[in-house]
Amino acid sequence: MGDGIFVGGGGAGYEEAQRLLLKFGNRHGLIAGATGTGKSVTLQILAEGLSDAGVPVFMADVKGDLAGLAVAGSDSFKLHDAFMKRAATIGYADYHYRAFPVTFWDLYGEQGHPIRTTVSEMGPLMLSRMLELSEAQEGAMNIAFRLSDEEQLPLLDLKDLRALLVFIGENADEIGLRYGNVEKSTIGAIQRRLLVLENQGAAQLFGEPALELSDLMRVDADGRGRINILAADKLMGAPKLYATFLLWLLSELFEELPEVGNPEKPKLVFFFDEAHLLFDDAPKALVDKVEQVARLIRSKGVGVYFITQNPADVPEDILGQLGNRVQHALRAFTAKDRKELRMAAQNYRDNPRFSIEDAIKEVGTGEAVTSFLEDKGVPGVAERTLIRPPASHLGPITPDQRAAALAASPVAGKYDTAIDRDSAFERLQRRAKAAAEAAEKAAAPAGAEAAADEGLTSARRYDPKAASRPRRAASSRSDSVATAFAKSFARQLGSRSGRALVRGILGSLFKAR
User: Fold this and answer.
1) What was the pLDDT predicted at 129?
2) What pairing do the DSSP bridges indicate for beta strands 57-61 and 227-231?
3) CA distances from 143 to 27, 159, 169, 203, 427 (A)
4) 387 forms bridges with which residues in the sheet?
């Protein structure tokens, strides 16, 4: 392997080795191409090469076929002869089948270890994007998080957030005096969005034990980096949830990892499949922050590789930071397609042997136009490259094979059982109970005194008209409880010293340390 990952053979006879240099692995990259052109195989062989080099990998398995990394390829596989022929063509003499260390994850806890974060760690802005909230609704969400910080009401799961939103709605007048007006209709709209999110299965994302980033950066006993695979076939049914979760994970890596400068190899490589979902309808402020993270996170030793059908799916400012590129075939059926094809070709360093634009149209399945950073970080000349065959199994694996990998995982049992700690939901319940008890005690003496007065009056004089009149109903307990609760809450607000966490555009990106 030397100092790079063998990707395939380029040149006139596909005999010139094309390598991704490890020291530039954190300079980010792009894997693009139309459906069925071989992007998944490229993703698979890059993960294999990084793992062999001792670099952990995180990737989402959108179609279910990347799970094959956990199982060795087989001589009986239908493409065995084709793989052997390709290996001989590109001079891949060390080609042999083998499995790789894989850790399976799943937000739903069905095909991998559960992967969770807390509502507080996600932050109000990322959560607002996931819920597709309006500006007013996002403002109410920010108030909820500020209140959580100042009132020591931890937001760990969705029921905590729901309880806090109910509390804000019931005490909107008092809260509005401090933070700004909050309409009950706004709270109701957020609650409806949360219900939709819960119906998509997001309730299982929020809670504890929360993911420890160190578990994504493990190596096995042989020094190979573990390949973390997130089962995303079901998750893709909720594209906002998928994109926001991966964005949160990227921001957590940025926040938690120390600066390492220019390492000899990356500490982690993060593959962001279906990257267009991150940028579709994203506000400019969010795109700007993604650009900022992409620019700065490489100094943390993290490489980010975007996988999408067309390079035009990635904003130009971010595209310009992707130094390592693998461009599979693009189709040009319309004028728009042809324009995007020309733009894609212009992102490569010219090769006098062929037209890059023509090559991108002509390359077959398993072939691509590649350009990897060379010495001093200069983009390499574009080459038509035959991608090397994978050493692991190509395609999905059986449930028994997945179960075996889960049982052998270094985090087996660590995240399987959810923990429900004392948090906002429980604390607000206790406050409500205490307020109700206080209201009952305050009402008891007054009620007894009124009854005594009525008895004395009845003893002195009997008034048949008064006896026939309906008795006045006692004031509603819910009204007195709400009043007592509101007054208590206002006093608590006045005594707080403002211990708020400052969250950035990516939720935890600029949170207080």
Assistant:
1) 86
2) parallel
3) 38, 17, 11, 21, 18
4) 8
DSSP 74: -
For residue 10, the one-letter residue type is G
* pTM reported for the whole predicted model: 0.84
In a 10 Å sphere around its CB, with 0-12 CB exposed, 13-18 middle and 19+ buried, how is residue 7 labelled? buried
Which letter, b or e, does each residue of 72-94 get, where b requires 16 or more Cβ atoms within 10 Å of its Cβ?
ebeeeeeeeeebeebbeebbbee
Burial class, 283, CB count within 10 angstroms (exposed 0-12 / middle 13-18 / buried 19+): exposed
Q: Report the largest interatomic distance among the alpha carbons of the chain, rounded to a whole angstrom.
A: 118
Q: How many CB atoms lie within 10 A of CB 364?
A: 11
Cβ atoms 271, 43 nearer than 8 A: yes
In this predicted model, what pLDDT tens digit does every residue of 272-293 receive, in sequence order? 998 988 888 777 777 888 888 8
The 10s digit of each residue's pLDDT in 224-239 is 999 999 999 988 888 8
Q: Are 299 and 260 in contact (CB under 8 A)?
A: yes
Element of type H or E holding 327: strand 324-327
Sign of the Cα torsion 269, 270, 276, 278 reads negative
Other Cβ atoms within 10 Å of 222 Cβ, number:
9
